[in-house]
Structures
1.
Amino acid sequence: MTVFLVTPVSNRSRQGNGVTARRWARILRALGHRVTLAQRYEGEPCDLLIALHARRSYRAIAHFRQRHPTAPLVVALTGTDLYGDLKHSAEAQHALELATRLVLLQPKGLEELPAHVRHKARVIYQSATAPRHPPAKAKRTFDVCVLGHLRAVKDPFRTALAARLLPATSRIRVLHVGRALSDEMAERARHEAAVNPRYHWLGELPRWQALRVLARSRVMVLSSTMEGGANAISEALAASVPIVASRIAGSVGLLGEDYPGFFPVGDTLALRDLLLRVENDAGFYHTLSQHCQRLAPLVHPLHEQQAWKRLVQELLP
């Protein structure tokens, strides 16, 4: 079968959408399909179109549906779709109507969909793999990883601000991996690193290096104000690194309502207190670790591959 996979970012992008699109293309090829990965759809022949992002890929979605009124069309919904565009974008709303199936990255996203299209939705958890030879944890520092590009929706400096408030006895060191997506963000990261001895901005790293930084950390912080289902959570679960996260729907959908490692969005003091507890309370750290270990099978690559296999068979028996 021929699959055309549309993504709004470059094929080489290290942003979440680019990582996701390339992984899905690999999975579909492993299942025996011919896959074209592109940013636009210009009428190329295919048996199935998969569009990542309802609004930003709307032109491709509408073009495909106009040319192929009954052919299978899958629209994968991002956090921007679920928690932003669907409320005010007519294009994003129309994309839901045109789609044969909708892919969500976590089950709580169903709550954001109009009731009459929820039957189209399928949840496919994003998979990840840990480094084959995990590096040893640092002994002199308690490393906290922040994994994500520097843009406003990630609230990227929340962990650095919390680290400023730690007592002198704390061994916490913040390792931030990610590219600044604006000159302003880059300047702020350089300034923060200069004035905050606990904060280290490592910039953009090749994916394998970023995952090694994560694997050698004691905990990962995801401070985003909005996520559809963060790749970083899957990567931390695969690497057996406990997670501290802002309480947003996309993360609650992955980690569960009862996950004890949440803090209120933008609450620096609450994040500081949570980091201190993670560092100093072995029982609490063990609780976070055990919870994450129970979730790890959800992000196993075979689990994601089987989910795509079922979806394709559903559309093209």
2.
Amino acid sequence: MERNLTTRELHVTRKKMWDASMANHAKYINSETQLFDTKYTTDRNCPVCNSSNKRDLFTKSGGVYVACNSCDMVFLSPVFKDEYLEEYYRTNHDVQSEIVEQDNEFYRNLYEKGLTLATKHLPAKGKVLDVGCSAGAFLDIAMRNDWKTYGLELNAKEAIHSRKKGHTVFENTIHKANLSETFDLVTLWDVFEHISDGISFLNSTKKLLRDGGLVFIQSPTKDSLAAKMLQEKCNMFDGLEHVNLYGLDSMKKLAEVTGFELIAYETVISEIGVMNNHLNYEDPYLGNVKEKKGLLGVIDENWLHANHLGYKFQLCLRLVSK
């Protein structure tokens, strides 16, 4: 899956996106507490099981990550209120589309793998709605594979760029878009972790799915070996945008309470290079350890993914009944 580059080379360009996000975070930080100002945030229970029994894990870039003591879900609490989170995304940078273009092969491999996974469980190709479609990199691949392509994107610059490539894009959230279309496939590429209420979101997709349609999600997972090892040093934890970090068990629970069935689940991206840098006392992302195939002479990429310990999951949900 990964390109034949060192871990450092893979992450140098992505650091630009991280730095741009951190610069946007700064305007919401309370200078005294170094946390996000409470006028923007609200405390919450576990977004999966609604338990109030939680423990603090660590603070990162203005936010506090906690774990649910009932179901082990990892999430931000306090979390940005919906109106401020939407404002943040509408005014956010558009560096992501630039990074995707620079790392084109890496992202194309992920997109093609995910599209193949979803297509395997569908009777035929049809209409796809990509939520948070950015500049349309995934939709480009879907279009080349004979899908009719639609997207939702709050960032105006990226929405315009996507439309120029022939995709139908709406600048709204799934709750406000009022779409008259129905879709064979609804996709979320590194978006679901940004949505504070996953239950409400999945319930909202029901009216958009044709009979037999699927929801496909790629998202960083709290089950990742790299995330468990690096914890606050891991870029999975950004303090503001990644509000919910699910694992296999929490996604099964989420599917159950929303009337979906989890029909496929895999992990992608090993982050073995990142972990080797960390274990060698170097910067996890910018260190110079070149080994990316094995960890401690014991763990390889195949073992990692067989045990669902990769950095992100790809899954498919099918609606049990409308």
